[in-house]
Amino acid sequence: MTKEIMDQNQIKRSLTRISYEIIEKLQNPDELTLLGIKSRGESLAKTVAQLLEQNNPETKINLYDLDVRKHRDDDRQEDVTNDIPKEAIENKTVILIDDVLFSGRTIRAALDSVSEIGRAKRICLAVLVDRGHRELPIRPDFIGKNIPTAINEHVQLQLGDTQAVILN
Description:
Blueprint: E1 3-6, H1 8-26, E2 32-37, H2 41-55, E3 62-66, E4 93-101, H3 105-117, E5 122-130, E6 142-146, E7 155-158, E8 164-167
Parallel strand pairs: 2-3, 2-4, 4-5, 5-6
Antiparallel strand pairs: 1-8, 7-8
């Protein structure tokens, strides 16, 4: 059984709220770098960057895609490289952005990927959906929606003309 738990408007509202929370909590958007975790976090990060720039027209947000497969413990791919300059990470507040937080393993791989590039001043995590069931001590700083799920259920961001979050 498939159930839509967030429609396109709810996703947009959640990302707008996350962008306001980022501004309130971090206060200096000039020091931000947003990293959208492939493969669904990139579009969310792009939207958050656009919203941050709309609210701070004098600021250009650093935005990059982050491929974490080199540091995965379940599907490691050694030939993966990220084209993120060291100066985008060094002494910056880095915000990792992903669609669904589940076990925390993707975020652990993202932290390793960022550390390989440079030393951030601070790393925060923003997720559209936190569904629980953590295997690692990882907690998001910015959450679109908490959705309690059973361990065998799947939550997926559907991209395309009509975005939605689907629970299977």
